């Protein structure tokens, strides 16, 4: 069953940063939707079967980190 | 003859912003090199036959503005 999880990412400064984070997280198998807001650091991920460590790895790959 | 001109761009917050500005300016005919530094706003453009209005338009297209 699909679930939505909220994360906080540090280091995003603009819309390009949001896109980078979103693109990496979207590659996680099972993820069906992701949004990121650089003004708050809020990242919302929806999908099935993904876990926090995968999200953390994707955020790291994009050049940012979970707070 | 090639010339190098310096500009100051406001609004760049990260390396993605630098890339966006660089990519737009690089499309101006005659431009052979461009660098951008988001920490200072400094943008350096080298080439032949380009003018300030083309640089301003490219910066605007990227979503930023000359100061």
UniProtKB/TrEMBL annotation, chains A, B:
SUPFAM superfamilies: HMA, heavy metal-associated domain
Descriptive protein name: Copper chaperone
Highest taxon listed in the record's lineage: Bacteria
Record CDD domains: HMA
Domain HMA, chain residue ranges per copy: 3-67
GO molecular function terms attached to this record: metal ion binding
């Amino acid at each position: 069953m699909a679930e939505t999880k909220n994360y906080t990412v540090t280091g995003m400064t603009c819309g390009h940063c949001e896109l980078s984070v979103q693109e990496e997280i979207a590659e996680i198998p099972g993820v069906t939707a992701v949004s990121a807001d650089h003004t708050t650091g809020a990242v919302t991920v929806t999908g099935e079967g993904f876990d926090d460590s995968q999200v953390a790895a994707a955020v790291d790959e994009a050049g940012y980190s979970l707070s």
